[in-house]
Amino acid sequence: MRGSKKVAVEPESLRISDIDTSGQAEAFAKRIAGGHRTFFLQGSWGSGKTEYLEKVKKTDAMKDYRFIDLALWKPTNRNTLAQNLFSAIFPRLAKIIYGTGLVLLVFAVIGAILLALQGSVPVLKKLTPLTLPVTVISVVLTTLHGFLNSRWFDTDRLLLAVSIRSLTSLRKPKVLVIDDFDRLDEGLQKELYTLFNAVHGHTAIIFVGDQWNLKSLKDNYLGKIIDQKIMLPLPLQSGNVAQRISEAVAELLGKDVDLSSVETMFVYEHRTARDANRFLAYVEAEFIGQDKKGRVQPDQELFIIYLYLFHPREYEKLYYDHWLPKKDSNATDPVTAGLFKNMKETDSNEAKEEAAKPLVEQYMDFMFQPRNTNPTDFSSNSSAYFINELANKHAVLQLREVIDDEQTLAKMFETDDLTHSADYEEFLDYVDRMGDDEYSAVQSRMEANAISVMHSEVRHVPNRLVKLIFGKRLKQTTKRFADSDFKQIQKMDDACLQAFESIFDDAERKIGITVSPAERMYCYRSCLNLYGTISSIGGGLALTTSVINERGVSRYFDAVAKRIEQRKDYGDRPYDAEALIVQLGFRFWLDGPINPTQHPDFQSKAESIEKLDPSEYRAFWKAYRIEPTKQNEKYLLQGGAALEFDYDTQPYEAHVLDRLIQERDE
After folding, report:
1. DSSP one-letter code for 178
2. Is 1 helix (H, G, I), strand (E, B) or coil?
3. Which of 10, 181, 331, 339 is the most buried (most CB within 10 A)?
4. pTM for this one?
5. Which long-range contacts (C-beta less than 8 Å, at least 24 apart) are formed by 67-72?
6. Which residues, 6+ apart, have CB-to-CB distance to 94 below 8 Å?
7. Considering just the CA atoms, what is the radius of gyration of the chain in Å?
8. How does DSSP assign 287-309, residue by residue?
């Protein structure tokens, strides 16, 4: 199943390099050399204890010391404590003894086989000279093995005595290191305490492990043995490791990447350098190997990698259950929110419940909130964020390059929304998510292309990208005048519209065209929502309009529209119908529950309407959705109820229907 299995990823270039702890190692070595004391080197698994001890061994203070590493925590190690200790102190002698024993055991087995088969296999009778010595060896070994394992002789006691004698010898000082002490079972830990009591004061001993995992801690065995607990150097602590991660990620992805969530979790959960290098390996694999750089929100992807490695259950919630947090526009970083809550005297029950969640869940609620920024966020494109998944969408840099490519950009503005082009949809989403500063850098080019495509043919139907560009300009204009001191709303609306007109003026200068007032009227009508949005408030309905609305546009263009209508050649030019539409109003005569009985006063402009050439005539009525429809082999005029008045000796509804049918047939 996609993304459900882990793939081994080896860290390559992106990793935490060796952390310099030479000064701390020298200081620890001097403590060891200062007397035969027993230490406990405290640190969680993978925190760098072993590497740190290797540096201690190489210091000048330890050059005359012999380090004996006693590794007891191995799943395949079935030897006794005495055997392991003897092997650690006398590695060569132990190999000789065990090797010799193995050879003799092989001889014993061979001898036993020869004796058993000699009577029944004639060929083996020729080996009689060999059979006797082999048989003797077999008998001797069998007898010796039985004696060594009998109650009369304790081999472990002999090995332990020899080992203790060597440890307490003053000929060469020794340091006994017990690695992974916290992982040993309780019985073996108690055995070791007995040994340590025997050599304590004669040999320096270093326990290595995590004291909070010790099974015998409650009985205070450790306190009776340990002279001093040594913490790992500060550079190896979680806080410094988290800082090193930030430096490595910044080198790969840039300094602006927010890694605060991962840094906080690393410190809070006491993660180690080994954890850090596992994390960085996946960072490199996902952002470089899977080519996600510039295609995903970096901080969200980094946090998902952290969940994948250290919180698999939470990762599975995202992957299998399609989990997303409740939308909260006021969501803040859990740490910041926690500090803020501590400053308040009382908290709501909801706040208390939120604070009671584990920190990782609080961060999930915060990190996966929807974002209207580039690249697309987790809530909009989650499949690109999962581990080992390819981010199929274009990188932000690639989408930005589309704007610099005139031909490609022009095609985006010409794309029909009905084509469902994946590249167009992605580019549209990219532009929609642009921040103010980012869009400001490309605004002139985008607006010029929007006006250019609208001007390319009469009554060009704008796609969503063109409408988005007009909408962005409207937001900027609204924001510009939001805090202005206008005593009347109408004056502010007029000021906004006058300022908005620069979208056409700038484009005219940039691409060398002329956008007539009538054409501008069409652009306002087709590229902006001038009618408003109906919403439900308090059980009723209300109409919400923007600062540029049908009333404002009608008022702004009223004078020029009347002049266009009075021209001698009125009706023959493109967009002449817009001069009537802007005077009559843009509202539909059946515009729902707001004004269901009101419609434009078509009778007052009937003479001018009839002057329009066929294309403009059709465009005029289409603007109000008044069109012929066929029912039961008979044509009717949709919306004809708005034309219930007489014109030229017949109902105007019938006249319009006849003309529209005639012009369509021609």
Report:
1. E
2. coil
3. 181
4. 0.62
5. 67/174, 67/175, 67/177, 68/167, 68/174, 68/175, 68/176, 68/177, 69/177, 69/179, 70/176, 70/177, 70/178, 70/179, 71/179, 71/180, 72/178, 72/180, 72/184, 72/188
6. 86, 87
7. 43
8. IIIT--TTTS-HHHHHHHHHHHH
